[in-house]
Amino acid sequence: MPTMRVAQVSQANAPFEIVEREIPEPGAGQVRIKVQACGVCHSDSFTKEGLWPGIVFPRVPGHEVIGTIDAIGYGVAGWTPGEPVGVGWHGGHCGYCHPCRHGDSFACATSTLVTGITHDGGYAEYMVAPAESVAHAPPGLTPAEVAPLMCAGVTTFNALRNSGAGPGDVVAVLGIGGLGHLGVQYARKLGFRTVAIDRRQQKAPLAAQLGADHYIDSTAGDPAAELQKLGGAKAILATATSGEAMAAVQDGLAPNGTLMVIGAVPSLAADTLFLLQGRRSIKGWYAGIASDSEDTLRFSQSSGVQSMNEVYPLSRVNEAYERMMSGDARFRVVLTMD
Ligand SMILES: [Zn+2]
Ligand SMILES: [Zn+2]
Description:
With 338 residues, the protein is α/β, with parallel strands linked by helices.
């Protein structure tokens, strides 16, 4: 029996263990992917720490997967063995529930499938995935460079392009880290007048390098007032992990502006009078489905948006995960299977 190496978590908070497993066969509606690289995302802690309701161990995390089609299951059309593909957080959908039938398959009510949580993900040499969760990747990508685009990339790109802002509008990115360093690049390439906001002045040179037109040090004064000096933001992409930081910038929205929340925080205090007076809104945004990931990969390739990564071999998965959790990585951590 041919085998593969996977990095699995055998129980909540246990270290990763590298084990040999039989290479799985794709079932009906599934494809098998030969994984080349997989990003290490903070949301992998749902698996590592056993935080996802009903999670079953052992489990292989990983939802920033880049690889090639290796085998095709029964009833699957549209894929060619060897073609480059990616898999993200969205792990599949039923196609027949109410949201799916209304074009909102991201919110499938039947099978809330999440790659690396409800089924094994990409910390492995091979993985099996529902075909509808797989994205076609354009040729010519370097897997270890683009893997984070399958979660951090699609989350920021898709939120920005659905924010209501158009070319020339002021758009702010709050938090210049794993998500924000991509958000600033996308905002610039989408034609927005791009404002980067972070604590301290030291991120200013990086923000400029990523394409920001303006930088606001949120500790130096009132970041909302600084945004209003620029005319107010049509959109603010909130990547920060603090509800207070998000609340502190909301008054920087222009009339009809939207605070796009892509980071989960325990609570967020809304300035309701300010919202209603200016018809402003606060909106959550889900990363995206496979077609959104395809758009993200193509847009990133053609516009030159690049994730800044620290790359580790699969055998050093524990070190890679700790590095990601430390918050000190610049900016994403990626595992390679070679
Ligand atoms: Zn993620
Ligand atoms: Zn559904």
